[in-house]
Amino acid sequence: MLEIIQKTLTDNAIIGAIFSSIAIIFLGFYIRKRNILTGAASKILTKVVLTVAIPALAFTSFMKDINQKELHEGINILIWGFVIYILLIVLTKFIFARVKGDKQDVFRVLTIFGSTTFFGVPIVKAVYGSVGAMYSSIFNIAYRVFLYSYGYIKMSGVKMDKENLKKNLKEMLLNPVIIATFLGLFIWLFQDMLPQVQIGDKSYAFLRIDQTLPWLYKPLTYLDKLCSPLAWLAIGITLAEVPFKQAVGQKEPWVYSLIKIILVPVINLGLLVVLNKTGILPVSFEGMATTVIMLATPTATVAAAYAISFDKEALLTSNCSLLSTVVAVVAMPFWIVILQIIKNIGLFA
């Protein structure tokens, strides 16, 4: 075991990813504290990440040859995405059984839906590369389905009638990340059936722009590389803006943060170990690690916005969002190391 831990802690790729994330978050914190950038910079950087960098990353991660292993893995991750969110909807009812009324609804929604896109995807990309980015995009399909349906219904208190369904579907389907994900997924899945272009001694689908239109693909690769550093800078700037004392002094945000950042990923990990060992739903290490990191993320912006918009425990939501972000920043390096130890033990292929 000591050899495995030593091997993990001397892995330059893992240590580099952990140090990079912490260093850039602290850089964002520092430049805000020194007033080099204003507080508005965080919102601008966040918008660039969510509307430009992550859509570019979601699309480019699918620009690769398809193979049976990754296809099977992608299907299993898609299935697991729906399964784990349904399980979390059920489990949070019991976890927060002692909490009543609107507060229970708020805790449940904030626990189920983390900041997978803004916080999770950049870390997955930095640690596990394009394969991890592709799996995170597939895993996020279920996340968005439930966020814009269950999350909205629970926080708004309205029934999902025709008008609300149309509104939420429009919001979901016009999201740049969703558009890029489904376009990339379509090209990846059906590349052998699409019209082919001969390049050298190999043929590629005409929509595989990494091969057929490299001059168009190149700008996207530059944009997808903005994802991690800009997201980490924005997190650092945000942390420099918020008042810690109010959140830290209350018990409920601490309990929520530990459940969200520690308990939920542990439940996910435990279930995947069982399903993988029994062969019911086998996943690779990268697939498992991607889902753990995506679930070990702080409060989702959309979930927090729902609570504030519908006047459901707005102050509690803000405190939970703040504290869970701090806890996630501290816990994420430990999660990455733990996952690497699990890999070196050989629990996942």
Automatic annotation (TrEMBL):
Superkingdom field: Bacteria
Keyword annotations of the record: Cell membrane, Membrane, Transmembrane, Transmembrane helix, Transport
GO-annotated cellular components: membrane
Membrane topology note: Multi-pass membrane protein
Residue ranges crossing the lipid bilayer per the database entry: 12-32, 44-63, 75-97, 109-128, 134-153, 173-190, 254-275, 287-308, 320-342
Species name: Clostridium perfringens
Predominant location category: membrane
GO biological process, one term: transmembrane transport
Localization (cell): Membrane
Protein name: AEC family transporter
InterPro entries, alphabetized: Mem_transp_PIN-like
